[in-house]
Amino acid sequence: MHWAKVVGSAVGAAAILALGIILGHFAIPKAADPPDPQDLDQEILKTVLAQLDASKIRENLRELSKEPHLASSPRDEALVEFILQRWKDQLSGLDSAVTSTYEVLLSFPNQEQPNLVELVDSNETVLHSFQPSEENVTGEQAGPNVVQPYAAYAPPGTPKGLLVYANQGTEEDFKELQARGITLQGTIALTRYGGAGRGAKAENAAKHGVVGVLVYTDPADINDGKSLPSETFPNSWGLPPSGVERGSYYKYFGDPLTPYLPAHPASFRLDPNNTSGFPPIPAQPIGFQDAKELLCNLSGPSAPDSWQGALGCDYKLGPGFSTNGGLPAGSMVKLSVHNRLVLRNSSNVLGIIRGAVEPDRYVIYGNHRDSWIHGAVDPSSGTAVLLEITRVLGTLLKKGTWRPRRSIIFASWGAEEFGLIGSTEFTEEFFSKLQERAVAYLNVDISVFANATLRAQGTPPVQSVIFSAAKEIGAPGPSGLSIYDNWIRYSNRSSPVYGLIPSMGTLGAGSDYAPFIHFLGISSMDLAYTYDKSKTSARIYPTYHTAFDTFEYVEKFVDPGFSSHQAVARTAGSVLLRLSDSFFLPLNVSDYSETLRSFLQAAQDHLGAQLQQHNINLGPLVTAVEKFEKAAAALIQHITTLQSSSPDSLQVRTVNDQLMLLERAFLNPRAFPEEQYYSHVLWAPRTSSVATFPGLANACSRAEGTSPGSEAWAEVQRQLSVVVMALEGAAATLRPVADL
Amino acid sequence: MHWAKVVGSAVGAAAILALGIILGHFAIPKAADPPDPQDLDQEILKTVLAQLDASKIRENLRELSKEPHLASSPRDEALVEFILQRWKDQLSGLDSAVTSTYEVLLSFPNQEQPNLVELVDSNETVLHSFQPSEENVTGEQAGPNVVQPYAAYAPPGTPKGLLVYANQGTEEDFKELQARGITLQGTIALTRYGGAGRGAKAENAAKHGVVGVLVYTDPADINDGKSLPSETFPNSWGLPPSGVERGSYYKYFGDPLTPYLPAHPASFRLDPNNTSGFPPIPAQPIGFQDAKELLCNLSGPSAPDSWQGALGCDYKLGPGFSTNGGLPAGSMVKLSVHNRLVLRNSSNVLGIIRGAVEPDRYVIYGNHRDSWIHGAVDPSSGTAVLLEITRVLGTLLKKGTWRPRRSIIFASWGAEEFGLIGSTEFTEEFFSKLQERAVAYLNVDISVFANATLRAQGTPPVQSVIFSAAKEIGAPGPSGLSIYDNWIRYSNRSSPVYGLIPSMGTLGAGSDYAPFIHFLGISSMDLAYTYDKSKTSARIYPTYHTAFDTFEYVEKFVDPGFSSHQAVARTAGSVLLRLSDSFFLPLNVSDYSETLRSFLQAAQDHLGAQLQQHNINLGPLVTAVEKFEKAAAALIQHITTLQSSSPDSLQVRTVNDQLMLLERAFLNPRAFPEEQYYSHVLWAPRTSSVATFPGLANACSRAEGTSPGSEAWAEVQRQLSVVVMALEGAAATLRPVADL
């Protein structure tokens, strides 16, 4: 071959080789390249929402509610196995599922010696006996597993005394009776549900010498005044006259004997006799049928207008019965309460889907399993939704179609009705790793109260993800509106940032989110479908905690067709996927700025002058709120900038950790030493009417009227510093991470 | 061109193109590829160690110690500026540096009315006055800024009484005096340093009716018995006869008025009159020259042998002076203490190097800046090392040669001598972000006590990184040994895992690491060079907290040539780089297994029988330790596996978070409610002699002798559950992250 030709060929070959090298280098993605960051997949999201099936939710509910499943009962244990098997299913289960069992202190009536409410004369001769249980109106109220109405954790005892009517049993109610000269010492107080917590009624009563408490549900508060059998279940969704709300009368939450410790068999337990938080005197709930007989025969002056109800008579205050009524004047009411405290095993069921990219970040979704009776609404409507969501996600998982970016933990909690026990023990057992790794907690307890609209409660950062989900799902019914647009019609507020938006509620301690938000500082939320408040003033769905909360009740009156159940399942499913799959966590921390600003404004408006008088200056609080606002806005801006670039995984993880851990920065275990578990300085219980930082508001209430320089005013100053420190710490968490 | 030839050429070209594509694709790294994970660079490490310069440390020390720099004094403030300017230097500074100032409660003697120790008769006529300050032996002891010897936070007062000798002022010492029938009521107690904390001497004394306390340093405890001027500084490293150890007599740490809150000007403050932790009675430290005069003239029975010292006389117990001695019999000792509590500004200086890859992970390295007088050893020997390390790293940084993987925070703490105040306020202010992000805290306070060997204290996970560093650095002196091999000759133990290894100490509350480990649960360590304990029994270097701790003292007697300073700088520098730059964090969490196993063994051996008698079973503790061991071993195995693959950044971050957060899992803010700041269930103060879990050991000590079923025995059970819960939580943190 000619040399020049060889050179020419070689040059040509070199050029081609070079072209190849260039093509190879730039045009073909490397197999070893990191895959595109796994982000929320809209197609998967659509698939999931489409597959969530109302009829399957209905089937779940029928199974879950077919028998009473009181915490630790054999049926409750059977449902543990039922859920475990679902989550271990080969075709639609999760990666793993386990049960976790605690030995906890529960309280039950004595089957051999039922609780009684009677009328007796001074020789203790029984003149009359009231109903010990609900009427069997659908054939389901008489089974051996229908627990008699009782006030869980109320102490046993047989107090008797003249009856007084004490309205809702608040501190103010008893003061009012005292002010009106009604003798309280040695009486039995009849109170109605609402206004004060269950246990608080007995606590307040005992302070005034009352020896026993009856609690009933007034038709005015639950049935929009209706009280006839023909107007109530099974003829409507109303509470029947014999219906009785059961409930826990324990003041705190978690296993009463093992505060701050998981209730393992070997754990240290308090002496039940020295445990605080139980009602100090016997208490017993009754139906409004019995309450009517008692209340409409009372003597004494008329109760104030706001104390009147819908029992069809003028409510009097007592003490004792009138001489011209249907009950013997001079007779006393006698309570025989035989409740027993028992150590019982109660289980959580936990199911896990392992995250593909960030397995050490947990999105937690839970509901309790235990009910008082059949619990079709409470909690099985939520569990039916939970099981449908795990079925759909589990099926995608088992098919290999999908695995979330982060891990998802599903939980079926035990013994919630006794005081959020299963969930609280879980947070105690896994305190460290949950604090380190939990992104958010989603609770769906009662999924459907009624058919009108979504109702969401949560801390500010979850508002955005709930809104995003609600905007893309159709509301049940013919409106054609999204869940979001329907919601805004029923419940809205004007946000200084967003204008008119649906109104989110805040989180108290009404369900299993409480230990997550208050004890662990994990951003939490609770979702449900609920009433049109313009159409009913019921304080909750009427058969709540009664033997009438059955499958038939749901199917006939709460959600025929289960379309609201499906709407909640879709909303919860969408929120769950967004939290578990989004590259950037969909927690808008800057939404806390609005809350802080409104808390600050309320403090300035309602406490400012009073504080000024005691030389307590809100200046540092103003500065702290401003620092927070600035840091939050800058972080959101930083995220926007990152989103438009190609951030690496660690950059996004850094930001996501800031978003996740913000809520933790509001925790201070030393803020409220007297409040068991409550460490979140923004959401601890607020007894003051001023809608501001609870520690500050409560301390001001307590200090009011004490002398300048008192310990109570020092505590106001301390609470102010506690909240300033928390806000400064929260701002520091949000600032660029290499700034101090 | 012939068609076949064209085809042939095309085929050949295609082959070459293909080859090029293959080469381009596989052989050339993509620009867009993520860089190799940034790991510890051995070349950088070598460069840093080589550049750490003994003569520059010497220069730093001369500047830092040239004037007294008591906390909040003008010179202390000047050093704040000095350090700030170093860290802001254009050529050798850090990315940023700031000061952070707190308003804290300090205690000073009154310059107008010096504290006095006198002999008086019953008419208060002064018979004799003792030295109010140290002798001016080098010309540096008489300056206006040499603070008079005093007991910081001891209350003002002018108690007088007969003198008794109370040894070290422990609870046992006073009980011994009582048992021997020595009247204590109304006396002044002379005690020597050691045995009990400073403040504890006054607290114990007050419980027995003692009205004032003197504290001195016995030559037996500090000078190996030597006490003549010719045998002490400036003629040797010994403590001169007039030397007096100052110190804080406050019981806790942090600003006394703002526990758990950063001491910002607007923060809530306790009333100083209601603050706990100050000595209950006046106290004053004196030199052994004065102590000799007092002690060698005491009357009464001889003190026990173990109470005798090296003052050259038989120590008697008193009360009062003997009739045949050099001091008037019947005369009383009168203390005039005029200490004042003052709110003062005290600053930390904070310098930051931003991490290149994980800026949200912090390695913190600090030392305090404030001294009692010149503080050449304490703390300037440490600060001189700190500034040399920042110079070398800052220079590399400014040149663009190096940037660490993680962020490094350097700190010069204020007001440590008064009770770790600057560091504690820092941990309070940045509680949340430090808990979330701090990898480890490295403290180098006194860097060189003496020239013999490295001394390291820390929690188990830091042992491995200190050993790694110590193995690669030569020990000062002619031995040719590594620091590690030299260390093992002086202080070693037999580890069941590693065989013979250097012995690491544990962390008490002696320096600024205390809030990091006890309050925040951050893996911490303290490094220094120290004595050959076979050659001296000095409890600390002799001029500690006296006016004789000067540059001359260091240069002549502590570390001529500064090679031990350099050795500490190299060790600290290497530890710092390893922590900030290693891809996998060099924290060997499985080294905790050895500690837990030994704590468990001690509990079984020394408490087991006693616990059994009270039906307290150690079984759950055994199980928890086993779970921890298993989880730790599995995690180490997992890391080994990852190291041999090509783990992605998030996989490594996940593991590193487990390593970082393990120490946090041992925190329980509710474990020891009466112990301010102490939340780490393994390292809280242990008063019991059994080397086991402190809560368990202390509770057992307190319960001993109480009746079965007592509250004290219930507390033992609670403490057992607290430690079991912590170990179970720690094991859960180490287990695979998607397991529960």
Automatic annotation (TrEMBL), chains A, B:
Q: Where in the cell is it found?
A: Apical cell membrane
For this UniProt record, give its keywords in alphabetical order, as a comma-separated list.
Aminopeptidase, Calcium, Cell membrane, Disulfide bond, Glycoprotein, Hydrolase, Membrane, Metal-binding, Metalloprotease, Protease, Signal-anchor, Transmembrane, Transmembrane helix, Zinc
Q: Which residues form the PA domain?
A: 162-247
* Regions that span the bilayer: 7-28
Q: Does the keyword Glycoprotein apply?
A: yes
Q: Which cofactor does it need?
A: Zn(2+)
Quaternary context: Homodimer.
**Annotated function:** Aminopeptidase with broad substrate specificity. Has lower activity with substrates that have Asp or Glu in the P2' position, or Pro in the P3' position. Lacks activity with substrates that have both Pro in the P3' position and Asp or Glu in the P2' position. Lacks carboxypeptidase activity. Lacks dipeptidyl-peptidase IV type activity.
Q: Which family does it belong to?
A: Belongs to the peptidase M28 family. M28B subfamily.
Per its record, how is this protein called by name? Aminopeptidase NAALADL1
Origin organism of this chain? Dipodomys ordii
